[in-house]
Model the fold of this input.
Amino acid sequence: MTVFSELRMRPAPAAARTGWDASTTARLVMAGAVIFVLLVGANLATPLYPLLQAELGLSTLGVTAAFASYVLSLVATLMLAGHWSDHIGRRAALILAVVIGLAGGWLFAEAQTLAALCAGRALQGAAVALATGASAAALRELLPTRPEWASRFTLLASSGGVAAGPVIGGLLSLLPGPTSAPYYVHSLVLAGLLVPLYLLHARPAINPPASARPLQALAPRRPSVSREARGAFWLAAGVGFLSFAVFGFCLSLAPGYFAQVLATDSRPLVGVLAGLALGSSALSQLLTLRGRYVVPAGLGVLGVSVLLLGAAGAWGNPLLLVAAALAAGVGQGIAFRTVFNEVAAKVEASRHAQIVSTVYVITYLGSAVPVLGLGWASGVVGVPAAIAGFVLLCGAAALILSAVTFRLAVIGRGGAA
Done:
């Protein structure tokens, strides 16, 4: 099938059904690479915000608004178009995501106003949203007998991209044009992905629309979850919301705050600080931990680590800061992977992209709404007090959720007995 016939949701002529008949391994790499590179681009800006704040005269609320515009656009696109790849095919959805991502990166690189920054971030959010469901569903389809590893690869690619973005952004900002050079380099890599994607021999859409009115299949849908998957869905959404609230803090105000605490203005170091929790979350996907108490244990580690993260900033302790960030990522990664895998295992294949997108709708709201509140509070009571209150709320919420899931695990064990 050609890309254009996929986008029109029409069968391609037999003569057009040519292309690169890639192996399963190559398809796995492509599906993971697209979401990884898009998320790298979406998080290049993290160590650049102090520069942009000084150049454009932005307030703390302006920085959080630029950050949140990405998340809000991502959430809106997930709600409106999270199911598109089920109908147009995974390859077409990924190509569309890459093209939109290129436009968003270029606009952000050339931005001279807060409105332009927000517009570029919004396009990046739309690109990530289109790729999220398509990539996760493609990985599951490529590993039909190993759904747990499909979930691991999904989270490894997404968490890894978010973690690598600030580090790469900090390093590339050492080039001439520190706020634009990272995006020019990233655009070259992103454009390079279009070549193998275009040549790839696409597989048919898993849920092709009726030929009479194909565009009706792309209309927004009311989120719904089957009764069997409902409990797992809400647990995954709750864990995701909380953990992404912590990650949103790490990617917005935390790097600048901790850089002040540690008395450094090194952008690469700021990028590393921002990516610590996300990086350890990504690497935790390589660990194999099983048992009914994995989720409460992971949430407990996350809660304690977040509290220690705030203490490290208050005490100016760099070793505690690094240790707490790494531990928070491991705790989050283990807990979220477990509940995410439970949802993926209980959802029928024909609705996988839609349900995964719905989980991420709630999850990504966690990195927008609380961070906007944090930005507002920073302007009212000051950054240190606002951050102290934020980490107390997040740490307490994680510990409460840990206690709830522990109680559910104990009840489940008693029922099994």
Summary: The two ends are 53 Å apart (CA to CA). Residues 383-416 form the longest helix (34 residues). The mean pLDDT is 82.
